[in-house]
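Field: COMPLEX_INPUT
Field: COMPONENT_COUNT = two
Field: RESIDUE_TOTAL = 380
Field: MODE = joint
Values follow.
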Amino acid sequence: MDVHFITHNPSKYEEASNVAQEFNLSIKWYDHEYEELQEDSLEIIARKSCLSIMQTKPELKELHFFLEDAGLFIKSLNGFPGPYSSYVFNTIGNNGILDLMKDKEDREAYFKSVTAYYDGSTIETFVGVTKGIITKSLIGEGGFGFDPIFRPDDNNQTFAEMTLATKNLYSHRQKSLRILFTSLTAFAKQ
Amino acid sequence: MDVHFITHNPSKYEEASNVAQEFNLSIKWYDHEYEELQEDSLEIIARKSCLSIMQTKPELKELHFFLEDAGLFIKSLNGFPGPYSSYVFNTIGNNGILDLMKDKEDREAYFKSVTAYYDGSTIETFVGVTKGIITKSLIGEGGFGFDPIFRPDDNNQTFAEMTLATKNLYSHRQKSLRILFTSLTAFAKQ
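Field: COMPLEX_OUTPUT
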C-alpha cells in the first residue's frame, strides 16, 4: 500500500522523501493545505487535522497517509510560541523572541515535531524532540525561521550556522519521520 | 424563535444577556466548548466554528445561535497577538507584551470582537472594534487579561482602572453584540 505525505510545502515533501529512501520506502506527495485547530498540544492538533482531512477528502479514508506539525517550545516563556510558531515568527519574529528572553537566565528550549500516521483505520502519532538553548542574539545566515536563535545541545553552532547535512542530524522533523518509517518497515517485514 | 448564545463561559453569557435586555430580547445559554481553527482572521475562525459546531451538534442546525471571538491587535507587532490572544496572555502575559513594545514608538492597538450569527440557514458576522494604545507599564488593578496595558482613545484610564460601567461603554464585545441585537430587533419588527 502506498503511503501519502499530505503537505502543501514542496520542501517538506522532498525532505521526507529523502529520509524515506534511507528505509527503502517510497512515499507519494498529496498536495493539500489542511486546517489546524487552536490547541496547546501538537499531538491533538495533528490527530484532529487527520480527522478533518478525511471529512473534506473522503477518498483519503481508503489510503495510508501522514502529516507533520512542529513548534518551538521555550521553557521560561511557558512553552511559547509552541503550536503557534509560524504565526509568531511571521509577526514578532526572532527579534521579538530575543526581546522576550532579554532578562531570562533559563534559556532552555526544544523543537518538537509530531508526525501523525493514518493506516486506513487508526491514527498514531510519532514524536521527535531536539533540545537546546535560545541564544542571546541572532547568529548565522543559513536556515530559516527560528534557526538563528536556536543552538542544539552538544553543539556550539546555531541551526543557522550549520551545513544542511549537520542540521539534519539534529532535525526534530527527521527524528519523528524516522520513528514512523522504522515502524512502517518493521510492519512490512512481519 | 429563541436565540442561543454558545459559550462555555458563564460571565460572557451574563454580559450578553444584559446587553440583550436593553433590546427587550431574551437569549438562551447553550453551554458548549467548541473548537477554533488556526486562522489569521477572527471572522473566518468564528464562521468555521459555527460550521464545526453544526457538524458535532446537528440539533443546532434547526436553531438560531451565535458565538463570539475576540483578540487584541497591535499595529507595530504586525497584529500580534491577534486571534491567539488567550494563548499569548497565558504564556508570556502582559509583561511579555510590554517587553515586545519596549522600543516601539507606535503604540497603536485595537481590540476586535466578532459575533457570528446563524439564523437557521446562513451565517453572518458582526464586528466591534475599540481603538487605543498600549501603555508603557501595567496600570490599574481591575479587569482581566490585557486590561492593565490598554487605554482606549478619548480616555485617560486603562481598562483596568475603569469601573465596569465605564469599561462597558468601550467594550468591543458589546459593540458587536449591539450590532447583532439591532439587526435582530429590526428584523422582528418587519
